């Protein structure tokens, strides 16, 4: 168990730093775009902006799944990276299919990744919600209903 924690916690910290980077990147680009389009926004541009935020956050989550998959592959749990990535995605998204399991030695890494994934999806949801709320607030300030 201790070995799992010693290996898993640094990966969780790496994922946390990566998520913080993606959040920072998203918010910086979002603010920059909103300022440049001040007064000239359209429903299409708002939808495109929200889609971009969602895409960047999903890419960040996918990159984290790939990091966990690399760890599983490096530890020799899976012969192919694609299998490790599938297993990582199931863990990260907290699906828990159970069709592929790791050896007893490293099995505790699955719940660690699931805890990491649920936290990171929560952060992604918060960023997307913040962007939606900002657009609603801006639209209301402009006196528009659409």
Main attributes of the structure:
single chain; 146 residues; mainly alpha; Helix Hairpins; 4 helices
Task: Describe the structure in brief.
The protein is an all-alpha fold and 146 residues long.
Structural class: mainly alpha
Number of domains as seen in the coordinates: 1
CATH architecture classification name: Orthogonal Bundle
Q: What fraction strand? A: under 5%
Query: Looking at CATH, which topology would you report?
Result: Helix Hairpins
Largest sheet: none
How helix-rich are the residues, as a percent range? over 70%
Per CATH, the class reads Mainly Alpha
Notes on the structure:
The chain has one domain: Helix Hairpins (Orthogonal Bundle). The protein has 146 residues and is an all-alpha fold. The longest helix is centred in the N-terminal third of the chain and has 35 residues. Helix 1 runs parallel beside helix 4. It starts with a helix and ends in a 5-residue tail after the last helix. Helix content is 77%, strand content 0%. Keywords: Ion channel, Ion transport, Membrane, Transmembrane, Transmembrane helix, Transport. One of its GO terms (biological process) is monoatomic ion transmembrane transport. This is Two pore domain potassium channel family protein. It comes from Metapseudomonas boanensis.
């Amino acid at each position: 168990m201790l070995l799992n924690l010693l290996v898993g916690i640094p990966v969780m910290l790496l994922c946390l730093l990566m998520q913080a980077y993606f959040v920072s990147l998203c918010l910086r680009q979002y603010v920059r775009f909103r300022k440049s389009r001040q007064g000239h926004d359209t429903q299409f541009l708002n939808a495109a902006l929200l889609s971009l935020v969602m895409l960047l956050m999903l890419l960040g989550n996918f990159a984290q799944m790939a990091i966990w998959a690399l760890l599983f592959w490096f530890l020799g749990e899976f012969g192919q990276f694609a299998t490790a990535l599938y297993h990582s995605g199931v863990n990260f998204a907290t699906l828990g299919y159970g069709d592929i399991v790791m050896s007893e030695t490293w099995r505790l890494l699955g719940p660690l990744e699931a805890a990491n994934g649920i936290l990171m999806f929560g952060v992604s949801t918060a960023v997307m919600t913040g962007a939606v709320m900002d657009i609603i607030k801006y639209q209301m300030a402009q006196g528009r209903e659409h």
